[in-house]
Amino acid sequence: MPAPRYRSRSLRRVFVRVPSGKSVLHYRKRKPSKPTCGSCGTILKGVPRERPFKMQNMPKTFKRPERPYGGVLCSKCTRVKIKAMTRQ
Amino acid sequence: MFEIGRLCVKIAGRDAGKKCVVIDVLDNNFVLIDGQTRRRKCNLRHLEPLDKIIILTKNASNDEVIRALKEESIECEEKKEAKHKQSQRPTKKKAVNKKLEEAKPKKVKTKEAKETKKENTETVEKAEKPETKKKSVKKEQKSVE
Ligand SMILES: [Zn+2]
Fold first, then answer.
1. Is B130 helix (H, G, I), strand (E, B) or coil?
2. Residues A47 and A87 occupy one common structural domain
3. Where along chain B do its domains lie?
4. What span, in angstroms and rounded, lies between the C-alpha atoms of B15 and B33?
5. Which residues on A lie below 8 Å from B12 (Cβ)?
6. Count of C-beta atoms within a 10 Å radius of residue A79
7. Does ipTM come in above 0.90?
8. What is the dihedral of CA A11, A14, A15, A16, to 10 degrees?
9. A26 and A47 in one domain?
10. How far is the CA of A84 from the centre of ligand 1 (A)?
11. Chain A residues close to B38, C-beta within 8 Å
12. pLDDT per residue over B21-67, tens digit each?
């Protein structure tokens, strides 16, 4: 039996290959939910799904697409928004 | 729709939201653009046409495009400044070196000062050592008692 704190499924299980060749169970915290578009709600592309300590060490260009509203709106919604702004 | 001189807004990519002019029509799908954006080939799907047409020759130079856009009160960043900044880098390094050379004699002075300080500290330590010895002696006496 695993230790009592590892019996619930609040931690995810990861099989890690150890230098000796064995595969060992490790328990890690779950990843946050996938980032979504602010207007239509689809899952954003080009935004990694990592815990904040890993996101901190990543450069800014790894964390969102490099366009206006990158990491907030999906590409389709930005096109619609920019078109609407130019017509005003 | 996308003839030479057509003012457009770029919708996709890192230049999205910036204004540009069509300089050349390459294909059914592609045109050459310049202006606030970088001068580059562009898919028509990534452009939103506006109602203005600027009078320009085919393959007009960057300066001509910027001048034409200024008359329409659309200002562009000048790309030449970035190059100048790059050329200034070595001059900055030289300036730093000069500063270091000037600072060198000062450093020597500071070293001398440090040596004098060291001597002072050594004398202080010498003065302190007997006290510590006395303390240790006292401790020994206590242990004996
Ligand atoms: Zn969206």
1. helix
2. yes
3. 6-71, 98-145
4. 12
5. 67, 75, 79
6. 17
7. no
8. -110
9. no
10. 15
11. none
12. 999 998 899 999 999 899 999 999 999 999 989 888 888 888 888 88
